[in-house]
Amino acid sequence: MGGKKSKPRVEPPSPLFDKGWRDVPWNDKAKYLEIVRCFEPFKPRNDEKNEDQHIRILLHGPVGHGKSSFINSVDTALQGRVTGRALTDTIVGNSFTKKYTTYKITKGAHGTFYPFVFNDIMGLEKNQGVREEDIKLAMMGHVKDGYTFNPYSTLSIDDRYYNTNPSLSDKVHVLVCVVSASEVHLLDDDTVKKMRKVRLDASDMGIPQIAILTKIDVACDEVDADLRKVYKSKYVKRQMEILSASLGISLNCIFPVKNCNTEITPNDDLEMLILMALKQMINFGEDFVNDYKCT
Fold it and tell me: Is 51-294 a CATH 3.10.580.10 domain?
């Protein structure tokens, strides 16, 4: 009698697609840096001061998902050295960012800056964190730099940090939602509803929106080993699809990145992903300003 036949070995499915589903010009970092460096500031209509103005980019999202780290990563890519001006905290808990803070990035000679700024805000939480009403006020330009967010009350019109007459430069030109790739599927319904409400408020104001999917190295071992596999990773793509379905942001407006958290020297692949996202933010902001000036 013959022995029992062994079952054929079944290989586990690959965590990677055979081909990347989004093209990345990995070797064009210098070109992207030049595009960003050549971006010109805008001049608002009827501006008697005739001063150069900037594109304002507002970051929002759940606590601990990498908003401040993304600002540092952009700064690092543009400065050519690791920076840490936006303070971060590695301990998960309540929001580390408390105040409405504007970050300018130095360009070339001391005293000159890139014509775009980032605004960091308190993170969203289930029962605490920044209030959606305060994010709306910030988008409208009513929140002055240095305002300390209160989870239990909204900025009042008689507060000294309330800007009663915001200019176009005070208003937000691009809204960026920042979410960790390793936690997209863990977001509670309340937080998702808050992010969706913020998105709808921005849409009512005509503000373009982008999502940044951070911590892709934590979420996917293959990407951790080689960042160039980010658009081959089935897991990363799935998290992008979940985020798109939850918030209504199209996939071509979602950018997976690795923030500069562990590096102590520049990393070209990391910075290429950051620069791709930054370039789109600048393009969207410029489109918003141009449309505003034509109305």
Answer: no
